[in-house]
Every structure is written in C-alpha cells, then in structure tokens.
Amino acid sequence: MALLGNAAMLLWYDIVPEDIAAHDAWHTREHFPERVGIPGFLRAQRWVAASATGPRYLVIYEVIDIDVLSGGPYLERLNHPTPWTQRTMPSFRGMTRGFCTVRQRLGTVLGSSALSIRFTCGAADKARLEAWLDQALSALMQRDGVTSAFWLESGAAPEMTREQSIRGRDAGVDQVLLVTGYSGEAIEALALDLSAQAMVEKGAAADAAAGIYHLACLSQRA
Q1: Mean pLDDT, to the nearest integer, of 159-173?
Q2: Residue of 207, 184, 211 lying closest to 11 (CA atoms)
Q3: How open is the CA angle 186-47-133, to the nearest 5 degrees?
Q4: Partner of 77 at 20 to 30 A CA spacing, among 70, 193, 204, 216?
Q5: Nearest-angstrom CA–CA distance, 187 and 76
Q6: What are 55-70's pLDDT values in tens digits?
Q7: Nearest alpha-carbon partner for 156 in 140, 174, 182, 171
Q8: Residue 116 in 3-state DSSP?
Q9: Cα 17 from Cα 15, distance rounded (Å)
Q10: With contact defined as beta carbons under 8 Å apart, do 150 and 133 qualify?
Q11: Are the C-beta atoms of residues 173 and 117 closer than 8 Å to each other?
Q12: C-beta neighbour count of 33 within 10 angstroms
C-alpha cells in the first residue's frame, strides 16, 4: 500500500542552511529509528523540496490511527528529547505540523516525486471544492507517471511539548493533498493544473501552499 495506516503526521519546515548536513545525519541515524520504534508508528518518510520556493523538508510519519499521535509512548518521547535532538531543535525554522486522518486514497504505489498542497476551506465553498477534488483526483490517476494520491484532513490538534518548546510553536494544518509519481516531469506537469492557485479558484482559502518534493529516505517498522 502506498500510504500505510489510517492516519499520518505531516511536517513542513526549513533548517538553518549551515546545519542542514547535521540535521540530515541526526534525522537518519537517530530520529527515524526512534520514531518507528514507537508503538503504532509504521513508517517514516523524508522528502526534500525540488526548489527553494517553499519549505525544504516534508516529513511524513504513517501511523495505525490518529490516537497514536496523542498516546503516551509518543508523548513520552516528545517530552524527553535525546541530547542530540535537543541540540538539533534550535536549527528548525517555520515548522507546520498536522495530525491527519486519511480521507481518500488512490493507487497502491508510492512514487519518488510528490506534489504537496496544504489548504483550508470555508463552509460556504466546501461542497464546491470537494466536488471538484473528487473529480480531479480520479482524473489525475490516469496520467502517465502518477502512482498515488491522498487527501488528508486534520483529525487532532498537536499539544505543546518539550520538543516543540525548544524549536518554537508549530503552525497547524487543515487539509492536505499529496500526489506521488515515478516521473518527476509528470509531477511538475501536474503541478501546473493542480496548483495552489487552482485550489483557491475552486474555493480554498488564499493561503493555500504547494510544493514539489523528491523522496530522500524512508524507514519502516521492522
């Protein structure tokens, strides 16, 4: 399955440029193994932006269900960060973090390139946007190079923890579209049609944000 479990935590953020190499080493060698070792965590993905126009990183933690993200084992780690984590957290900038349930999933293969769109929608435009998205997601799955698509929506609000207090308060997430493919060119072409501006024109709020990412690494629970 392209996205494991029924929920996911998604994070978008930047790192102080001079600390990128140190972040990647920590994230790969300590943080990913620690996270997938928490009960209910299934897989961790790190994606890197294709350009400098948006947050450098998109990180996805797939979990069995949304309750895992407010459960004791995860909160225990957040409130007792390791020394390496405490040294790394101050390098984070502009963290956006959401606990999301999977509303819709299409396809069974996780691609190596992805289009990510974060958006919100007022009640007055919700039905129009949702109807358009249902059609758009089904149509884009017919495109060569596209492998999977996911529509996720906020299922819980993350609480303040020791780890978050070190890096600063996170921004929240309402809804997310994530489309993956095996062809970077196909995802770039898709981004011209399924763009943040297109979302706004169909009823999303003006702060919709889109970015193209490439898979850097993933870690799956043994």
Answers
A1: 95
A2: 211
A3: 50
A4: 216
A5: 38
A6: 999 999 999 999 999 9
A7: 174
A8: strand
A9: 6
A10: no
A11: no
A12: 12
